[in-house]
Hints:
The complex is a heterodimer of chains A (493) and B (179).
Chain A: H1 3-31, H2 52-55, E1 60-66, E2 69-73, H3 76-79, H4 88-94, E3 101-106, H5 108-115, E4 119-129, H6 130-137, E5 150-157, E6 164-169, E7 174-180, H7 194-204, E8 209-211, H8 212-216, E9 223-225, E10 229-230, E11 235-236, E12 238-239, H9 246-257, E13 264-268, E14 274-278, E15 283-287, E16 293-297, H10 309-322, E17 335-343, E18 350-359, E19 362-366, E20 372-377, E21 380-386, E22 389-390, H11 393-400, E23 405-406, H12 410-416, H13 418-427, H14 437-447, E24 448-457, E25 465-466, E26 468-474, E27 477-482, E28 488-492
Parallel strand pairs in A: 19-24
Antiparallel strand pairs in A: 1-2, 1-4, 3-7, 4-5, 5-6, 6-7, 8-9, 10-23, 11-25, 12-22, 13-14, 14-15, 15-16, 16-21, 17-18, 18-19, 18-20, 20-21, 24-26, 26-27, 27-28
Helix pairs in contact in A: 13-14
Chain B: H1 2-16, H2 18-23, E1 29-33, E2 38-40, E3 44-51, E4 56-68, E5 71-74, E6 82-83, E7 86-87, E8 93-96, E9 101-104, E10 110-117, E11 121-130, E12 136-146, H3 164-177
Parallel strand pairs in B: 2-12
Antiparallel strand pairs in B: 1-3, 3-10, 4-5, 4-8, 4-9, 4-11, 6-7, 11-12
Amino acid sequence: MSKPNVIENIKNISLVVLFLTTVLLLYFFWGNISFDGLKSPSIQVTGEVPETAVILRPEQIILNFGAENYTVVPPGELWYNNKETGSFVEELVRFGPAENILVEEITYEKYQQVKGIKSIWASFNYAIPISDFCSNFGITKLQSYDVIETVTEIGYSTADRGNSLFIYDGKNRKQYRLLAEDPKDQDNKGNTKFPALIDSIEAEGYNIYYPISSYLGIANDTLVPLSVEANLRSFPFLQDTYSYQTEKISVIAEKFFGGNFDFVRKITEENGTVIYMYGYGQNVLIVNTDGSVEYKETQLSGNTMEQSFSGALETALNFIASHGAWESFEGAKLTPHLKNAIPLPNNEKGYRFTFDIEINGNRLYYEEGEPVTVDVISGQVIYYKRHFIDFDQEDIEAVETYTAENAFSAVNLIAQNCKYIYSLLHQSGEVNETSDLDVMLNEIAALVKDMKIGYVKLADKEATEIPPVWVVTVNDTEFYFDLYTADPIGYSE
Amino acid sequence: MRKLIVVLTVVLSLLCSTIVASAATDPNVILVNPKSNSTVYSNNLLISVKLTQPKSIKVSVFEEKQVVNGTLSAVNVNTLTTSNGSINNASFTSVSTGVPALFESKNNLSFYTKQMSLKPGLYRIRIDTLDPAGKEIFTRNSYVVVKEKTEEAEAKIFETPQSGTMQFLQNLLKTIFGD
């Protein structure tokens, strides 16, 4: 073959290769496809994924023993335990027989009436689609349940023959009665042992609660404990990350970008915030100076997959498990629970999940932000933020050894901090100006939605300790007070 | 003139006397719960007293009993008579249920709260306002009737009462077709 022909052949082959390469590169750029598409799509879950039935936990369980005798208990094993003995969920599963359950909508007044007598109620902060509620807890879902869209509260009452469950659909603000009628058994109580469960809790003794109306003489049926004993104490903590921990931050970033980490740009801002960016911003990781980590991913085009509530939650839990899991980056263990689940707006097929965490059975509140937030659209996590704390487990175990002492009286906490609470409500325009202490008390008492104890992570970046607190929810504001002195510590709107 | 001065002195001393004050109630000490002359269907009673000034109070609870066949017995609350909304207590004997509780408030707004387990009967809640020396300067008495917690298991909220005709028809259908 002559030399000119060889050169021509080489040129032709080069042109073909260049042409094909150009087509391939244009395909990727125009198609907005990540190189991740070339890899296996499955996420390598490295951490433990908690059971969904454990994550889906009510905010509280309220027991009415009758004649204005109440108690409020944390859900814990009373709500669900895998030993299948003496739990709320066990009794829900047992309710039946399935072929005789009728569903009827009832009025708000009837619903309040059944709550006013011997009963037990589990209240969630969010609305769970009925099909997901039943599937997650192993409850047989009947066709008659289709009239109910979501479950926000579920309970059992001894009203009438004590053979009914009651559901509040928070999304549509409707109340339902599930009546288990077995014509062959006139004494049928719907096959459940709820009455025995209520009686056993009453017999074991309980921390007594009364409605605010009983303490303060103002109409409000929010339950408040007469007294609380606790052994909570302040403990020291550290941020999950600090700006100077460059190697640690790099290792964290690698978890999010995997094999693409070499193609990632790193930007360090003047204030110490570190940003990792892949491509033209398809994947962004922000390590903030407060120790929080944010990850954003551009939604894949053409991805319109419908995903159920449970499916989206599972996607979120798997993602969290493979990107830090439920512990600080130094290994401090935290217990998660779903705090809220909001469908994303603008017809986006997904949810925003926020999670709260507990340390040794006590909830850790945040004055600013949330511990974990995850946005899931069509099976893809497009936003993830985690803001954990690091602490020494030995400090927590030391707290556990302290003797329980009386927390500050809940009612006198409100009385003592009347002016403080009122001034903040006035600042936000929720109440009118007044100097009359009685008027302030009456207005605040009517607006109190909840009172609980726990720990709080303050927004102050100089804070080095986590204090134990009373958390008073007035309208949509959480006020934090020292658990033992009732001194105001902070608030969160 | 001298007689006038004597009369004025007596009148003023009566007006300023603590004897008069002890019969009056303290407007800054209010029994929020239970409401006076109310009935409570529970053996758990919450006592809530509101103080709107820095004060010291003493709270005592007495069971009002009556002599029946020579012995002191609990008042039969089902046959209690009232007149003009107040309880006729002329024949009762007060029996203390325990040591009076002392409570001191240093704020302009505070609450004394206590839960008591009581048997059915008639009770009198006495609240004394104390001066710095511990002497009672104001007294307030309120009555409350405690009755047994009623059985609510048969509370009928959804079953509507039926007319005689409807009940007859229902029974007839049950007879024909069974349950």
